[in-house]
Amino acid sequence: DLRTMSIAAEDVEANVFGTAVRGRAKVDNLEEPVFDIQAESEKIDVDLLQREIAAVSGPPARVEKQEENTKGLAPGTRKALRKVRGRAQLDVDQVKVGKYDLRNVSAVLTMVNSKVEAEKLEWTLYGGRWVGTGSQVRMGEEWIKDHIVLKVRGLNLARAVDAHSEEGGRVSGMLDADF
Question: What pTM was estimated for this model as a whole?
Answer without folding.
Answer: 0.83
